[in-house]
Design goal:
The chain is mainly alpha-helical and 600 residues long. 71% of the residues lie in helices and 1% in strands. The protein has one domain. The protein has a two-stranded antiparallel ribbon. It has a two-stranded antiparallel ribbon with strand order 2-3.
């Protein structure tokens, strides 16, 4: 889309890009989108509790959708063409459902069950997640035109998804079928490996050399390889910088810091649980310090966000054509007028947060959502690591001692910010493809409501016993961090061991310093600067997980550099490995829980 300085980009878009006569949101797109979103939600929640990462689902969803409808057409079940814009709408539904595990939702849910022995009512939790997600959708409305139409922010994942959809629907090069086959074969491999390992027990889950460190085998320090391809897939979807930062952080934590703590008597034994019980504090502090510093350094983006909001809400719209296509701006205040009383009542009834304190969370969450959307548009990273602790710190002061309220008030901030950014990412895809924005908003609403209904039972299915969270099998690093930050802000750091207090200060300082270096270093030097988020996460996951994710990132980097013609297969293969292992892992867990013998 080319514009001259005199032409408005919205006018050019309406004339050259917008495709009003092609199918967008259809019944079959909603139904298949919800099904794909449900599958990806299950997969993502498995990955989340294993790695701490929430993976975007749009790229996987659009490839899966293409494969499903190609299969239906080949079988003669559905002969209607499946077009680019219909795939975009379906992907929006799937993203809304499948990404419910992110934005602090699964982290908050897991952390809540780590600090309280009472499981909240399932229907209440479904309503809670649905209301927060819908508020995030409406929060995207007043800033969409400013960030996407006017400023043309990159939203890298949205742009990549648009290019992927164009590519797989191109009959000329056959890339769509090739990508779908790569995803299918990788999924089958991941599923078969998981069944052989977890059901038949023919291969071990962990492989480590028979070397001792401080009188204990390396496996006790979690310095080992895992036969979990989900970790390789997750690493392949990261940047190589994040991957090698994970390796660096894992080695420093478990090969040097852990043994030193054991030698000084600060941890009782060489084990993952013992080490992470101490490293949680500097790791969480590093993440918070880096996140808040990056947040503060982005003050220009913050200022542009508020100027953009003021301009959007106050300006007169002369482009009548675009006004008829975009979502009406009055939907934003109307939606919040209806939903705010609901979320305030839920906060009061479910988490004992005083209504006056609950009321503070909503406008704070909206402001944070606006900022999160802009940061996502510019960097492709939604800053929930910073937004959550900001709210936790505030509620630690105004509602001291309320652990569940502290966590779930932060969930409001993180959830609204995430879902606003998620919708804007898919709207960027639609903008590039010429889709109808209103149809995408409807699609996202279908997706998030379905996702809320899926998330709670999916959590209970994957993690029937919350006491396993924080173990070597289910590290759940984000849950550990949220729970730890909540305890620190609620009970005060005076209750911690003196070494932990020092570690918190060191972690904060290191996080601040690394964020400053990352911000001001020359562009050519940034790939060689450790990622504070990679280092911080490595301090709260097993070293074996960091090693495997590094290997996945390294393999993907080798493909990109040495055989770039196969770079397009990295995403489908990585996504297939994740989907295959995670879904089979869930199936094995269900069969085992039901008492069905799986042994040969």
């Amino acid at each position: 889309m080319k514009t001259t300085p005199e032409e408005d980009p919205e006018t050019v878009w309406l004339r050259e890009v917008y495709r009003p006569n092609e199918p967008n949101l259809t019944v079959r797109a909603v139904l298949v989108g919800v099904l794909i979103g449900a599958v990806l939600c299950l997969s993502n929640i498995y990955v989340f509790f294993k790695t701490g990462w929430s993976l975007g689902v749009t790229l996987t969803a659009c490839i899966l959708a293409f494969a499903v409808f190609q299969g239906l057409r080949a079988a003669g079940i559905d002969r209607r063409p499946f077009g680019v814009l219909e795939n975009n709408a379906l992907t929006t539904v799937a993203s809304g459902a499948g990404y419910m595990t992110a934005g602090g939702n699964a982290a908050a849910f897991g952390a809540l069950l780590m600090v309280t022995t009472v499981r909240p009512d399932q229907i209440g939790m479904v309503a809670w997640f649905a209301v927060i997600a819908v508020m995030g959708v409406f929060a995207a409305i007043p800033i969409k035109r400013q960030l996407i139409n006017k400023e043309a922010l990159a939203f890298p994942t949205g742009t990549a998804t648009a290019e992927t959809i164009r590519t797989i629907h191109s009959a000329a090069d056959g890339k769509g079928k090739a990508a779908a086959k790569a995803l299918l074969f990788a999924s089958l491999f991941g599923a078969a490996l998981t069944w052989i390992r977890d059901a038949w027990k023919l291969i071990p889950g962990t492989v480590a050399p028979g070397i001792e460190l401080m009188g204990a085998p390396l496996a006790k320090w979690t310095i080992a390889l895992k036969t979990e391809v989900v970790l390789l897939g997750a690493g392949a979807l990261m940047s190589f910088r994040t991957g090698w930062s994970l390796l660096l952080g894992g080695v420093l934590t478990y090969a040097f810091l852990g043994p030193s703590l054991f030698e000084r008597g600060l941890i009782p034994e060489p084990s993952y649980k013992a080490v992470v019980g101490w490293t949680l504090w500097p790791g969480a502090a590093l993440l918070v310090g880096a996140g808040l510093t990056s947040f503060a350094l982005d003050w220009r983006s913050l200022a542009r966000a508020f100027r953009g909001i003021a301009g959007v809400l106050g300006a007169k719209r002369e482009e009548k054509g675009i006004d008829a296509v975009e979502c009406p701006e009055w939907w934003f205040p109307a939606g919040f007028l209806v939903l705010t009383p609901i979320v305030v009542v839920l906060m009061s009834m479910m988490f004992d947060i005083p209504m006056w304190a609950a009321l503070i969370a909503v406008p704070l969450a909206v402001l944070m959502g606006f900022v999160a959307a802009r940061v996502t548009g510019e960097t492709d990273v939604t800053p929930t690591k910073a937004l959550g602790p900001v709210t936790q710190m505030m509620y630690g002061v105004i509602t001291p001692g309320n652990l569940s309220g502290n966590i779930m008030s932060a969930n409001v901030t993180g959830g609204i910010g995430l879902h606003a950014a998620d919708l804007l990412t898919t709207l960027k895809t639609g903008w590039l493809l010429g889709a109808k924005p209103r149809h995408q908003l409807y699609a996202q609403l279908f997706g998030v409501v379905a996702g809320a209904a899926i998330l709670v039972p999916a959590f209970n299915l994957v993690i029937p016993d919350p006491s396993v969270l924080g173990s070597d099998e289910w590290p759940a690093p984000s849950c550990v961090v949220w729970a730890g930050v909540s305890k620190a802000f609620s009970n005060g750091i005076d209750s911690l061991h003196s070494s932990s207090k020092i570690a918190i200060l060191v972690g904060l300082g290191l996080g601040i310093a690394m964020a400053l270096v990352e911000k001001f270093a020359p562009k050519h030097a940034k790939p060689y600067i450790p990622s504070p988020y990679g280092i911080g996460i490595a301090m709260v996951v097993p070293c074996s997980s960091s090693i495997m994710m590094f290997l996945g990132a390294a393999m993907a980097e080798v493909v990109r550099r040495q055989v770039p013609k196969y770079e397009g297969y990295v995403v489908p293969v990585a996504s297939g490995l994740i989907a295959g292992e995670s879904l089979m892992g869930i199936a094995v867990t269900m069969l085992t829980t039901a008492g069905i013998s799986l042994a040969l």
